[in-house]
Design a protein that fits this description.
The chain has 387 residues and is α+β, with helices and mostly antiparallel strands. It folds into 2 domains: 232 residues, no CATH class; 97 residues, Immunoglobulins (Immunoglobulin-like, Sandwich), CATH 2.60.40.10. It contains 10 helices and 13 strands. Strand 6 and strand 7 form a beta hairpin. Helix 5 crosses helix 7.
Length: 387
Amino acid sequence: MKNPVAICHLSGLAAILFITVGTFAQIPSGYYNSAQGLTGADLKTALHNIIKDHTVQSYDYLWTAFNTTDKNAENKVWDMYSNCTFTFGSVANGGNQCGDYTLECDCYNREHSVPSSWFDDASPMYTDLFHVFPADGKVNSIRGNYPFGQVTNPTITTGNGSKLGFCSYPGYSGTVFEPIDDYKGDFARTYFYMATRYEDLIADWHSNSPEADAILQDNAYPVFETWYLEMLGEWHAADPVSQKETDRNNAVYAIQNNRNPFIDHPEYVYQIWDVGLAPEPANHAGDFSAHTITLSWNDATGPSLPEGYLVRMSATSFEAIAAPLDGSPVPGDFWNKNVPYGVQKTVFGNLTPNTTYYFKIYGYRGTGSSIDYKTDGAIQQISIEAK
């Protein structure tokens, strides 16, 4: 009979790695080489050294930059604060740049998603396109200098559903502004960028305003207060990198000559701050089979890729193999093997001859307390007799 060889196929979407793979051609060759193999504060500092010293533009130039960084499919302004239709350019040229405004949709202006008062309006932060977005003038004034947060009982709800009110996220009860779900991940990755790009400056920002003090610590790592870091981690996971962000990252890179690493490599968030659970792979490995004590498979394909596999064994039954728990990594031992993505095989040794062993394979993403296993759906499994 044929030697059984496992062939695994993975389909579906796990957007965190979809963007990394799909846009890799846009990232300069070797751009992140100096960050490889690092974690925590060391990884953050390595990324800081890669993206610092960007080409600084004038504040007036941002109006022009928005034409390439924030254009939607209708060639209008892509505004994350409103559903308004704005035309690029000054009023004199038929556009909707602010001047004066009274209501939503009157005009768009330049929104510092990290309020400029937090860094005392200083350069180069003031014109850094990675956190300055076109935004409805009225909604921008409603947001003011308040931190982002989550609001259960809003005092103001804007046209696209953004909210202002007291924070309902545990850890803070002051006034916050909550963007809509579609863009929460965008803003989370913006804040991770700012914490990294300005690692050498951000420790002093907390003292510039009460709002800044509510979310920032007086250090370069971890930068954010615990409640805010946990919220940003949740937003990052719940709203994965979109094509909009990818395109904007490339457009800003063409202007500033630096990139947002957390758009190119969303996994860096977990590797630096270890917040939340890493999004699980979308599907299980497929067509699992074994060759005596060696299990082999073709790596998962498609846009949603695991970072590794946990292969579990039992000498009694499939039912005896317990599903792993998210946030609780399973160490490798006689009964369990952790295999990095790309290795495509593992060996179970010292098995009893003429005994049937049972195996299940689980894809996972993340490490430590952020590990997230794929445990729903049909778990791939196989049994084989050791010779």
